[in-house]
Amino acid sequence: MYNPSLKQCHTSPQANCADCRLASICLPISLHIDDINKLDDIIQRGRPLNKTERAYYAGDKFRAVYALRSGSIKTVQVTPDGQEQVTGFYLPGEIIGMDGLAANHHTNSAIALETSAICEIPFSRLEELSAKIPNLQRRFFQLMSKEITQEQQLITLLGKNSADERIASLLLSISTRNHTRGLSAKEFYLPMSRSDMGNYLGLTIETVSRVLSRLHKQGIIALNKKHVNIEEMDTLKNTALVQMDA
Questions:
Q1: Do 152 and 187 fall into the same domain?
Q2: Is this model's pTM higher than 0.90 or not?
Q3: Cα(63)–Cα(89) distance, rounded to whole angstroms?
Q4: Domain around 88
């Protein structure tokens, strides 16, 4: 059965990289213990963010990247006509804030979808440390590449795919990311609202609800409010027209 406690990691400011169970997918991956301790020395851990609270605002000067320790966060951008566009959903172990690298200010705002804890990593200190620890620099480049790849996949998703394919792809993305964190690939919680899903995928909230209901009626998923159980993984993959490990 789904256990809501599994989606949380450390929320205590006293937690460190060495004892964090997300170390294997976050920045410390492949680092020796001495190097992890050096990284831990520059990380700042404040109080948890409450739901709807922002880690940073669009337009803020770029000073840091943030590792999500628990909870979930969405990033949003305001379009020229004043509309809010969801640009991404982030889960524990993932890095946010890299949108600020290019122009030295954030182009997105990062908003907590639920009570969330983050590790703030001052970028100037990270640059200094990366020069001394090649594996850390390499890991950061990998994360940047992953961010670019995800943006390209979203553009492809919005440009070509049907509503069913878009929603199936999002469910599979969450499934795969949960699996990477050592959680169930088949049973999980959707932290975002139907409205946010539709905004992100370029669909109306009615379409999102209709497609999820259809997947439920077809027995591909079992849906109970925000709790999802993937009953037919191969069928969901076929619906998304992608191949992902689960």
A1: no
A2: no
A3: 21
A4: 8-157
Give Cα 57 distance to the centre of its chain.
Answer: 17
Residue 245 lies inside a defined structural domain of this protein: no
Which pairing describes strands 95-96 and 84-90: parallel, antiparallel, or unpaired?
Answer: unpaired
Could you tell me the two tokens for 30?
């492949």
Considering the domain architecture, whether residues 32 and 147 belong to the same structural domain is answered as: yes
- Boundary of a domain, candidates 124, 157, 190: 157
**Which positions ≥6 away from 195 have C-beta within 8 Å?**
205
Q: pLDDT tens across 155-206, in order?
A: 777 776 799 999 999 999 999 989 988 889 999 999 999 999 999 999 999 9
Give the C-alpha separation, 227 to 173, whole Å.
15
Cβ 209 vs Cβ 194: under 8 Å: yes
Q: Is the pLDDT of residue 61 over 80?
A: yes
207 neighbors 198 (Cβ within 8 angstroms)? yes
| Cα 56 from chain centroid (whole Å) | 16
Do 30 and 127 lie in one domain? The reply is: yes
Pair 9, 48: CB distance under 8 Å: no
- Contact (Cβ atoms closer than 8 angstroms) between residue 98 and residue 145: no
- Residue 3 belongs to some domain of the structure: no
Helices 205-217/194-201 angle, 10° precision: 110
